[in-house]
Amino acid sequence: MMNCTWGYMRHGRYLYYSWLFWLLVVAVAVTLVWLLNHMRKARQFRCPGCHTRVEQVYLRCPECGHGLKSHCPGCSRIVNNSWRFCPHCKKELHPEVEKKSTGADSLSA
Length: 109
Description:
Elements lengths: L6 E4 L2 E4 L2 H24 L2 E2 L6 E2 L14 E3 L6 E3 L14 H14 L1
Antiparallel strand pairs: 1-2, 3-4, 5-6
């Protein structure tokens, strides 16, 4: 029988009796559980208005009514309000934002 800090052989199997080995196994398991939980929470969507968790398919926040998605004026497909262009028909989604900024520039000149 060999003297080893990690364990010893008995009947052809390596038995682990070292406290250091089990401490490392528990630490790795806890770290993996924490990482998986953290990644799951990172995928959850939140309302930009009230920061409540919302499902990805919601069009409006059920708490504050903030619009999360709208329809494209060109192809009538559902698009996110944060997008500038429709990925389906390539139409600009918020042209009034551009008109307001150009109108303010002409007044200041």
